[in-house]
């Protein structure tokens, strides 16, 4: 891996020692530079879990990816920087169906540093945490206006957040559950195929692209561009959300200008209803 080229891709120019402040900085830089997107699926392409191919896609071609791609590649970068990284299997709770996905539905990362364990994730999209979450506490973990916690139930752990909406009485919503059993990238190959072909998958049903911004986030879904501005105050502040309807001929230009993603093949915009899975987890 060309570490310097990867760090340049995410706009990081600080120290590279395996320290917590470096881990926090590299994660937030990654989230603000590399979009969470599944556009290849809707351009007639496919997702391949091969690290050199992922480096070519994300670093050289300035595309983004889904969790398997982004966290898989991010783990390679962190390992090259001297961090001890463990791949973990997660199951995402779908916002529409309220059902959890199957095992290996989500790839997330655990970094062990000075005897402390941290959950790292650059592949969860707009609701994801900005900085690593401590796995050593069940207390609230505030990140600006957002609040997260990690619940533990025997071997299963769950990431939850104070749902991002206006008002201090927001509900707690579970994002995904996971175990600490070590995995390898090949373990996720079957679910990677599932997400490219199943009507129960968000990635199959919707063409999407999202990117964290210094003051909020930007998301493309189907024919919509959604801009969210974060409150500057502590948790409970007001969100500002605007939605722009896009014409077919506008979409590829918006993706290039707003997300830095240049498509080499025509995109078929998609925003279909996700079907509940036949098996509930």
Structural topology:
Blueprint: H1 3-9, H2 20-33, E1 36-37, H3 51-60, H4 67-80, E2 84-92, E3 106-113, E4 116-120, E5 133-134, E6 141-143, E7 146-153, E8 156-162, E9 172-178, H5 189-194, H6 202-205, E10 208-213, E11 216-221, E12 224-229, E13 240-245, H7 248-259
Antiparallel strand pairs: 1-10, 2-3, 2-9, 3-4, 4-5, 6-7, 7-8, 8-9, 10-11, 11-12, 12-13
Helix pairs in contact: 3-4
Task: Give a written overview of the molecule.
By secondary structure, the protein is of the alpha+beta class. 24% of the residues lie in helices and 27% in strands. It contains seven helices and 13 strands. The chain has helices at 3-9, 20-33, 51-60, 67-80, 189-194, 202-205, 248-259, and strands at 36-37, 84-92, 106-113, 116-120, 133-134, 141-143, 146-153, 156-162, 172-178, 208-213, 216-221, 224-229, 240-245. The protein has an eight-stranded antiparallel sheet with strand order 5-4-3-2-9-8-7-6, with helices on one face. A hairpin with a 2-residue loop joins strand 7 and strand 8. Helix 3 (51-60) crosses helix 4. The radius of gyration is 18 Å and the shape is globular. The termini are far apart. The mean pLDDT is 93.
Tell me briefly what this model is.
The chain has 281 residues and is of the alpha+beta class.
